[in-house]
């Protein structure tokens, strides 16, 4: 080694030592990596209440769990930016998600899907069979006085005079995503059922006279305002102690979802986790519903979140005592 090269290395030694020191300090301060989601635990990623002041609260719902080695995201909250923030703070690697279950087509349960798709574009998504969110639509454009179309030139007729009953295949909200619309309850992997229900309280309306445009969707009596019922999905996982049921907002009625789950799985309910949607109910209605859950359906444990409501939080806790599990933002239920 010549003298000039040795002199240069000698002058660079302080810089080399500084860089080594900086790297060692940075290594201690940088995040340790992503959290490992353990089998059987449920983590609340999005909610309006919680103990962790580092997380951002908002009205909406999302949780993540692991079942038989598969990581399942259930719903994704109201705001994609807040969903992203909370997931990063909780060190959740959404690229590891095997599939997503969206409970229903309300903003406070699905807007975070936009962020998920930006980092995991081909993830499998299960969505309720909802024609207003992209499910195929059986449509009838025949109209009245059918023979009238023959008086029109072909270029003024639908499909050049072709069939007027057809199916519209939509691109949907999540264009090009790997989405499947689920119309009825079914098992999608061993021990895991999607429970399909429909709300009689909320839905989409059609008041057109004479006939329905969308066959099979609005089936009430003729000339009435017809309510389709908001389609909902819940997720039920079989364990040795019974079913673990995750619900989004329970517009169908938490009791009706539990009844359907018991019917489909032919199993008892160990835990119900998520939004029970008891906010609209007064004390008597809430007490009656809690009694039904505990004594008629024999639900062992509850972990209410999101839209359950303050009154129901209190009364459920009083009733279930040690079998009431706290499920606020950032919490882990095992």
3D structure, described in words:
The chain has 334 residues and is an alpha/beta fold. The protein has a single domain, classed as 4-Layer Sandwich (Metallo-beta-lactamase, Chain A). Helix content is 25%, strand content 25%. It has helices spanning 3-29, 80-89, 107-110, 113-119, 254-265, 283-296, 310-320; strands spanning 42-46, 62-67, 70-74, 99-101, 124-128, 137-140, 165-168, 178-182, 186-189, 192-199, 205-206, 226-227, 230-239, 242-247, 269-275, 301-305, 332-333. It has a 7-stranded mixed β-sheet with strand order 8-5-4-3-2-1-17. A 6-stranded mixed β-sheet has the order 9-10-13-14-15-16. Helix 5 links the parallel strand 14 (242-247) and strand 15. Helix 2 crosses helix 4 (113-119) and helix 6 packs parallel to helix 7 (310-320). The protein is globular, with a radius of gyration of 26 Å. The chain starts with a helix and ends with a strand.
Write the layout of secondary structure elements.
Layout: H1 3-29, E1 42-46, E2 62-67, E3 70-74, H2 80-89, E4 99-101, H3 107-110, H4 113-119, E5 124-128, E6 137-140, E7 165-168, E8 178-182, E9 186-189, E10 192-199, E11 205-206, E12 226-227, E13 230-239, E14 242-247, H5 254-265, E15 269-275, H6 283-296, E16 301-305, H7 310-320, E17 332-333
Parallel strand pairs: 3-4, 4-5, 5-8, 14-15, 15-16
Antiparallel strand pairs: 1-2, 1-17, 2-3, 6-7, 9-10, 10-13, 11-12, 13-14
Helix pairs in contact: 2-4, 6-7
């Amino acid at each position: 080694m010549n003298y000039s090269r040795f002199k240069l290395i000698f002058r660079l030694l302080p810089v080399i030592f500084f860089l080594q020191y900086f790297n060692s300090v940075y290594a201690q301060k940088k995040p340790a990596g992503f959290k490992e989601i353990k089998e059987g635990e449920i983590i609340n990623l999005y909610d309006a209440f919680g103990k962790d002041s580092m997380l951002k609260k908002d009205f909406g719902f999302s949780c993540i769990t692991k079942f038989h080695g598969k990581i399942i995201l259930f719903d994704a909250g109201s705001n994609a930016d807040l969903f992203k923030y909370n997931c990063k703070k909780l060190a959740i690697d959404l690229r590891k998600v095997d599939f997503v279950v969206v409970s229903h087509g309300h903003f406070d349960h699905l807007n975070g899907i936009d962020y998920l798709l930006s980092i995991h574009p081909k993830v499998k998504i299960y969505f309720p069979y909802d024609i207003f969110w992209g499910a195929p639509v059986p449509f009838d454009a025949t109209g009245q006085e059918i023979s009238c179309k023959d008086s029109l030139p072909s270029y003024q007729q639908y499909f050049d005079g072709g069939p007027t009953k057809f199916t519209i295949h939509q691109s949907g909200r999540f264009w090009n995503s790997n989405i499947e619309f689920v119309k009825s309850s079914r098992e999608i992997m061993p021990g895991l059922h999607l429970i399909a229900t429909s709300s009689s309280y909320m839905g989409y309306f059609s008041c057109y006279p004479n006939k329905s445009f969308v066959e099979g969707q609005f089936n009430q009596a003729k000339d009435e305002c017809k309510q389709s019922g908001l389609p909902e999905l819940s997720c039920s996982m079989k364990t040795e102690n019974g079913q673990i049921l995750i619900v989004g907002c329970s517009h169908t009625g938490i009791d009706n979802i539990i009844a359907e789950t018991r019917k489909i799985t032919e199993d008892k309910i160990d835990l119900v986790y998520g939004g029970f949607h008891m906010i609209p109910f007064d004390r008597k209605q809430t007490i009656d519903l809690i009694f039904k859950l505990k004594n008629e359906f024999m639900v062992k444990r509850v972990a209410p979140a999101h839209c359950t409501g303050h009154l129901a939080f209190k009364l459920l806790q009083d009733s279930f005592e040690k079998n009431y599990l706290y499920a606020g933002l950032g919490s882990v239920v095992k």
